[in-house]
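Work Package 3 committed the consortium to producing structural models of liganded targets before the mid-term review. Because experimental data for this complex are still outstanding, the team generated a predictive model from sequence and the ligand definition alone, so that downstream docking and mutagenesis planning could proceed in parallel. The input record is reproduced below exactly as it was submitted to the modelling pipeline, together with the SMILES string for S-adenosylmethionine.
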Amino acid sequence: MSQSEWSSDGKSLPIIEPHTKAKHKILEEYVENLILTLYKKGRYGLKTFTFIDGFCGGGMYHDPSTNELWEGSPLRIMKAVERGCQKSRRKYPQPLDVKYIFIDSKTSHLECLKNFSMHQAGFSEEFIRENCQFEKGEFENVINSVLLNLGLRKGHSLFFLDPFGWSHVSMSTIRKINSLSKSEIIYTYMIDPIARFIEQRNDAQLSNFQNILEADGYYLQAKPSMIKSPEYQCYLRNETMRLFRDKGRFNYIFTFSLISRGFTRVIYYLIHMSNNLTALEVMKESFWKENTLDYEYYFELYGYGFRSIDFYQENQIDLKFDINQGNESFCISKLDNEVGALVEGSQDGISFQEISEQTMQTNPASRKHYLEYLKQRREAGDFEIIRDGKITNSRDLKRTDIVRIQRNKQLFLFRF
Ligand SMILES: C[S@@+](CC[C@H](N)C(=O)[O-])C[C@H]1O[C@@H](n2cnc3c(N)ncnc32)[C@H](O)[C@@H]1O
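The resulting structure, written out as tokens with the ligand in place, is given here.
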């Protein structure tokens, strides 16, 4: 049995890696906030949710740093839903209609999840029977019938797709998921093997690259001569976002880079795909919490990301600055370039919705940073916010609020 496999009885478990821990924390943080955001909205909040863990694994890992068990993605999703409900102060599990679908190609992994891990984590036989569905098979073979049922079930669906390789999820399936009315994906996208394939032009993978990933015409500049340039990682990330935006047809794509220990290459991205601006905002908050990259240089190259602390120690890089404080000021200065230019360029002002739509995917700032930036510009007397035709001093903004240059400054700026 390989180190990444689960035995049916849970006696043999894979060892958890620091990157996987960061991935799990982002996932659970996001799911909890998703439930809080969508379910808490009083009586009319959304009640039907389906979580599809497409490469679920056996549910538990061994953590050598504590010599204890570490919960895998299926358990983290289920517990985060429970926490989200409790925090929203609504009853759980009723009236919430939540269903979990777990897919894996290995019988022993599903057995470990169902018969060992879920019990270890405290889920009852009855809860598992009523809320969980287990599907054994290759993801691409199983997904069509799952999607058919989801189309009938409706509600919100979150897909967590966490394969080992890059050819197990087709672009055509990503589009099918997108065609469900309220769906989003968190996808572990193995960029390093893809980059190596592109650099070496390994013909054995060409058909997967063209037909499964539909990536012909993307990553064209990724040549061996470019590998050492710092802009290379930035290029790969931008091309990945372009590919999933164009071919996956999701409106909003954002990435979190998982960087290999001691190297500067990204092993994989956690890509979030959604059609909803609020979902993107909530995900950026979750990314922010797990980000260990310092501002400016790394943000420009990788966006948010994770690199274990040992990297900084081994390379004797002094972490004397507070990463988050530096990152906060970087985000605000980035907004000055992007949002500042948008507001200053529009004589009649621009809605907060438009500002967010145009810039949320091009910088690491979260909604909190947008509000802070706009507050600073208002306090400096540069901008004003118009709500229902009147100036408002409210700190929180509505999407329909108009941000415009303060009247006196406008006269000066737009005088012809
Ligand atoms: C990275 S592990 C999943 C880890 C799990 N998501 C977690 O975070 O706890 C990948 C899993 O995908 C399964 N797998 C590999 N190829 C698959 C395929 N084509 N379809 C479905 N499952 C597959 C493997 O058996 C393995 O359990």
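Reviewers should note the following from the model. Residues 18-314 form a domain with the Rossmann fold fold (CATH 3.40.50.150). These observations will guide the Year 2 experiments.
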